[in-house]
Amino acid sequence: MPEPPPQRTRDRLRALPSVDRLATSVARAELRDRRAELISGARDDPDLVARARDRLRPSPRRVLNATGIIVHTNLGRAPLAAAARAAVAAVAEGYSDLELDLSGGERGSRQDHVEPILRELTGAEAALVVNNCAGAVLLAAAALGGAGRELVVSRGQLIEIGGGFRIPEVVAQAGARLVEVGTTNRTRLADYTGALSERTGAILRAHPSNFRTVGFVEDVEIEALCALGVPVIDDVGSGTIVPGKPGIGSSLRERPGTDVLLAGEPPVRRSVSAGAALVCFSGDKLLGGPQAGLIVGTHEAVRACRSHPLARALRIDKLSLAALHATLSLYRDPALARAEIPVLAMLDADPAALDARARALAAATGGEVVASVARVGGGALPLLERPGPAVALEAALAEPLRSGDPAVVGRLSDGRLLLDVRTLTDAEAEQAGAAVRAARGAHGAELAP
Asked: Which are the contacts of 424, defined by CB distance < 8 A and separation ≥ 6?
């Protein structure tokens, strides 16, 4: 006889709602919404049973990313390393020392969990973490340029990133006055010096995360800006914590050629060494962690951010904090970071492993292995392309695969659905193969050419 389930499992089974209570609750909600649709003039005839079934699905849902976009914003950006997932589970299970100093029994700061390791990895005097990089830039601008002070920005850096996030609007919301210098394609040091005055709060430097300007261009390096004698806020976007010389955080430089992959993103340590007052970057892009906005810099500038009222509104939650600390800890061992952080592993995946994965998926689905090009995505390294294999299937599978469980999302190209194996693990590729077979079984007639 099989062993009975553990007591905790039995307790959870008993806690499940009865069929009648669950069905009644879902039916009432679905009928209420349908009545509202009909009153509004709806003329469609949806399957209410299918809609009711969808209500019972967890949300957000797990998705297998076969698009070849490594940091896919629509799919949640960076997948977490195993250590980060374990850290989240441990903190979520019960209470934690989020804001308690266990040694003294007094109230502590949630920033204490990550500030020491951020200082270690970047060389900064102080650090602060908020809920996303847009919030980090807003807080930095408000702390150093608020109350009507001026923020000097190059016209070539008045950028807009995803979701309509625009630098001029951030500056306005921060309470600062924007001073534009230079032109769209060329800004010189003299442009900055001519704009500085006693009203200047800071110079804001914004990295063009999701595009590049090429050709007849000129800008000013961070070292020259910091030498002007006013605070500099450096928004490096994704950035990297890979320094320009051996030392902590030198992951990806042990294998020949891999340092070139990250050359298009500014290293955080360089900005810190140059003397930037504040450097802002993302936790969920090339860093490979959870959504977070990281701020490192001088004691004085970080203190100004900590004491600003916006810091409370933008503070990071305990689950993201746990995942971030676990991710940052991996960077202490360069080889471990490269192997364990999914974004870094996918970026520099072994071509032989990709080929083997693609062949296995093709055999499981009857698809064809074709050449493909993967990209980083997420507003990082927009010009970088990573060649590799994908499995081509009939385009009609796209919708059934998106609707399956687990959902599989590929990309359409030249009338076919491509499943790029760079953004799938071996286990996920097996799941994707099973999903394709299930979709064909359920929608065989519809998928026939």
From this structure: 64, 65, 66, 357, 361, 432
pTM: 0.86
pLDDT tens readout for residues 292-330: 999 999 999 999 999 999 999 999 999 999 999 999 999
Look at residues 124, 90, 91, 128 and name the one whose alpha carbon lies nearest to residue 112: 128
Residue 163 structure tokens: 């979701």
The pLDDT tens digits for 143-185 are 999 888 999 999 988 887 666 678 888 888 888 999 999 998 9
Where do we find the tokens 């299930």?
438
β-bridge partners, 373: 387
Q: Tell me how far apart the alpha carbons of residues 324 and 319 are, in angstroms, rounded to a whole number.
A: 9
Separation of first and last alpha carbons in the chain: 49
User: How would you list the strands of the sheet with 368-375, edge to edge?
Assistant: 368-375, 385-394, 416-420, 411-413
Count CB neighbours of 18 within 10 A: 8
d(CA 271, CA 277): 9
Neighbours of 214 (CB within 10 A): 8
Handedness of CA 383, 387, 388, 389 (dihedral sign): positive
Phi, psi of 341 (to 5 degrees): -85, 115
Distance from C-alpha of 176 to C-alpha of 233, rounded to nearest angstrom: 13
How is residue 385 written in tokens?
Answer: 């392309």
Tokens of 46: 């949806």
SS3 annotation, the chain: CCCCCCHHHHHHHHHCCCHHHHHHHHHHHHHHHHHHHHHCCCCCCCCHHHHHHHHCCCCCCCEEECCCECCEHHHCECCCCHHHHHHHHHHHHCCCCCCEECCCCEECCHHHHCHHHHHHHHCCCEEEEECCHHHHHHHHHHHHHCCCCEEEEEHHHCCEEHHHEEHHHHHHHCCCEEEEECCCCECCHHHHHHHCCCCEEEEEEECCCCCCCCCCCECCCHHHHHCCCCCEEEECCCCECCCCCCCCCCCCCCCCCHHHHCCCCCEHHHHHHHCCCEEEEECCCCCCCCCCEEEEECHHHHHHHHHCCHHHHCECCHHHHHHHHHHHHHCCCHHHHHHHCHHHHHHCCCHHHHHHHHHHHHHHHCCEEEEEEEECCCCCCCCCEEEEEEEEEEHHHHHHHHHCCCEEECEEECCEEEEEHHHCCHHHHHHHHHHHHHHHHHCHHHHCC
Question: How is residue 308 written in tokens?
Answer: 């600003």
